[in-house]
Amino acid sequence: MARPAVRILSRYLVRQHVAPLAFSLSALTALMLLNQIAKQLGNLVGKGLPASVIMEVFVLSVPFIIAMTLPMAVLVAVLHTMSRLAADSEITAMTANGISVSRIARPVLLGAAVVALLAFLWNDQVLPRSNHRLRTLLVDIQRKKPSLALKEQVINEVVPGQFFLRAARIDQATNRLRDVTIYDLGDADRRRIITADSGHMGYTPGQTDLYLTLYVGDIQELRRGEEAQFNRTFFQTNLVRVRNVSNQLVRTGEDDYRGDREMTVCEMAQVVDAATDDARDAHRDAEATVQRDLRRLAGLGPVPAPPAPAPDTTGGPYCRLLGRLTRWLLPAQAQAQTVQVPVPGGGARVVPPPSIPLVTPGGTSGELERVDGAQRRAAVYLVEIHKKVAIAVACFVFALVGVPVALRFPRGGAGLVIGTSVFVFAIYYVGLIGGEDLGDRLIVSPFLSMWGPNLLFGTLGLIGLWVMRRASPTARGGDWSDLRDAVVGLVRRRRPA
Q: Which value, in Å, is the radius of gyration of the alpha carbons in the chain?
């Protein structure tokens, strides 16, 4: 009869965590989403976008926010639930019936492991797609109204290949310009450069043409075929109309470019494999260059280059399993046929694919730069791969930290939950951001740069569980005064007499 009772206890402990997890995840996600809305709403509303597009921007921001708040929610839920159970003497009753602390923590950690697995799938499958759609949408929004996309001290392309504008100062609120220079290349028979002390931008009622009202400047004009004649006209007020500057939002259909945060683990693994192959080829080319020069000096003939190893594009077990599922669920892709060119006299000649000419390396210095570039490119994607997995595993690590802390301080209340959560979050995410920068610069290995915070808190959690196994939890005491007395006693013991 012991096993059914243990199963009932496990289900009870897991159920107690569901409601706090859902509440904390919703609250933290809502807070971070409100922060995102506060930062971007002004820029979006000023472009005259429909409410559906603005809502889509914030909805596409939710997956990234959930990826960051889910580990936080796990820690908050574990701290709140376990401290409440300990304060209500439920943990004491369990230990009095012979159930160890490790047995009590087991269903909580198993539940956290399931959440970590779901978090990894979320980070690998949902998050890259939402990031890609969000970036594409933001680029489309930026192109919608050039007056809000113009940058100061930069030559901005208002009409592609025809009209360029530079301004030293741009007031986004009033569309006022200072120190304006315009390069008008729209007419193939003439080139104009317009300079003005100041100006103002406005749109026609149809929002298709841009009006520039310029003050105190000149127009320098040069016509084709009349290179010996240069015209310069001064003005106090000049009105320039730029046609076909659309103010309509044009959505991008397909965008093949994807950054590291818009790719899945398998896609980034292919990039890493390609960069690794490039570095290996550079090493081999550098060695071949040195050997060829030495053999030439010794009067020996050249040695044929060894065949390059075939690249491994299968990926790990996860990518192979995902590939099988994709081929099973999705229809097979059409295969291109081999092109056959008829030749005189009958028959057909198979046209081989175009070959890429090999470039003979000129020296080892260029190959070393090539190796360094390939290693840095691989490091960026390796860091992102490890970050996806490490953030997901943080759900389990935070639960491992929260259980012993909640059992040791059962009467900490809201102060325990808030204080411990803020402390852990601050250290973890500062370490994550700093580690990402160090990993991208090859100062620290990609694994250690992303897994360092997990290893730190995982070790602390295991030590805490080991300590709690030796000292059974109790509802007596266990508030913040115990922590204060422990710290004061430790300081006094270390103080010299």
A: 32
